[in-house]
Amino acid sequence: MTGLMRVWCAAIGAGATLLALPLAGYLALRSGYVPMAIPTRPLPLERYLAKTALHAELRRAAPRRSPFPATARAIESGAIIYRRNCAFCHGLPGRKTEAAARGMYPPPPQFFHPGAMVTTDPVGWSYWKAKYGIRLTGMPGFHASLSDRQLWDVVQMLRRADRLPAPAKALLLASPVQRAEPGS
C-alpha cells in the first residue's frame, strides 16, 4: 500500500469514526438505555459538564454587586420571601430537609446547613441563580414572579445565613399561618 493510499484510508477511517460516535450517542438516547431516573448514578462527565457550563455563564452574566444595601429591613423582607418561595426545597434553620427535596437530583442545597451556605459565594451568582434558575436541576427561575428588589433581598438574607439577625430568623421560623411583615 502506498503512502498516499494509507493517508486516504486513515482519513476515511477518521471520518467514519466522527460520524459513528454521534450516531451511537443518538441511538443510545433514543433506545431508552440512558438512565434518567433520580436514583440512578449520574452519567460520566455529567456533573463536570453541568458545573463547567453553569460557572462559565455565571462568570459572564452575573452581576458583580447588589444595587441595594443590606439593611435590616431588606434582610427581613428576604426572610419572608424565602420562606414563601424557597424554604420548601432549600430548608430552614434547624429544620430537617423536606421529603420532596430529599428526592431531587441534584439535591437542592440546604442553605442553613454548614457546608451548603452561600455566605461566601459571589453575591451576583446567588442572584442570577434565583432569577434565571438552573436547567435540569429543578431550580426554577423567579424572574417572572419576583421583582429584582425581592430577589436581592433574599440574596442579602442568605449571605447572612450563618449570622442572621434575630428578627429575620423569627420571620423564617414563624408558623405558616402567621403572615408577619418586616418591621411589625
Write the layout of secondary structure elements.
Blueprint: H1 3-31, H2 46-61, H3 72-85, H4 87-90, H5 99-102, H6 123-132, H7 148-158, H8 166-173
Could you list the spans in which at least 5 consecutive residues all have pLDDT below 50? none
Identify the CATH homologous superfamily of the largest domain.
Answer: Cytochrome c-like domain
Shape label: elongated
In total, the number of strands is 0
Question: Residue-averaged pLDDT, rounded?
Answer: 90
Radius of gyration in whole Å, from Cα?
23 Å
Please state the structural category.
mainly alpha
Number of helices: 8
Provide an overview of this structure:
Helix content is 52%, strand content 0%. The protein is mainly alpha-helical and 184 residues long. It is elongated, with a radius of gyration of 23 Å.
Question: What is this entry, summarized?
Answer:
This protein has eight helices and no strands. The protein is mainly α.
